[in-house]
Write a structure and sequence with these properties.
This protein is an alpha+beta fold. It has nine helices and four strands; from the N terminus they run αβββααβαααααα. A hairpin with a 4-residue loop joins strand 2 and strand 3.
Length: 181
């Protein structure tokens, strides 16, 4: 059972877009997208932990998204806590290429659960403030697996992690947790 990383997403893109001009980490204006499918005007970004924990990286992502909107491109962000299941494939890629047996056979290799499963995976409590906003957006975008992602966080608490190590506090919760009584 393999979990998704950028190199595996690249391999999958090469199968999905086998008849397309695919550029990897090639300069596009001021950016270097992970994957650029030229003839589809499509950028695919694998968003690892730094895309949630490092505010400079999150801001760069916002700039890329703005560039995409202003230049008639499309972008797919795949965060590290999302796996490419059949449901996710259909959400992200079916408008480009319908799921077929060849792709389905590849997806079987990546039957890793959605969420924060790997013990080394940074949890939302580790996210910077704008990374938390981005995480909340991703939960809504990937609503078909939102329950799985939240359950993976609950599982972390159930196996002994402190809730403060898993869930981010909002400002009000922080203030209430530490104000003098």
């Amino acid at each position: 059972m393999k979990y998704l990383v950028e190199t595996r997403l690249v391999d999958l893109a090469k199968v999905i877009f086998c008849d397309s001009d695919i550029r990897l980490n090639s300069k596009l204006d001021r950016f270097r997208p992970d994957i650029f499918i030229v003839d589809k005007n499509l950028i695919i970004e694998f968003d690892g932990p730094r895309h949630f924990t490092n505010s400079k990286v999150v801001l760069r992502d916002y700039k890329i998204d703005k560039y995409v909107c202003n230049n008639n491109l499309n972008i797919i962000h795949v965060p590290y806590f999302v796996q490419i299941s059949e449901d996710i494939y259909n959400l992200l890629f079916s408008s480009y290429k319908k799921l077929n047996d060849n792709i389905r056979n590849i997806l079987v290799e990546y039957m890793y659960p959605h969420g924060f499963i790997d013990k080394k995976a940074p949890l939302p409590a580790d996210f910077c403030s704008i990374g938390i906003e981005r995480f909340e957006y991703m939960l809504d975008y990937y609503s078909i697996i939102k329950k799985d992602i939240i359950q993976s966080m609950n599982n972390q608490v159930n196996v002994g992690k402190d809730i403060l190590e898993v869930y981010p506090l909002n400002k009000r919760e922080y203030y209430n947790a530490f104000k003098k009584k």
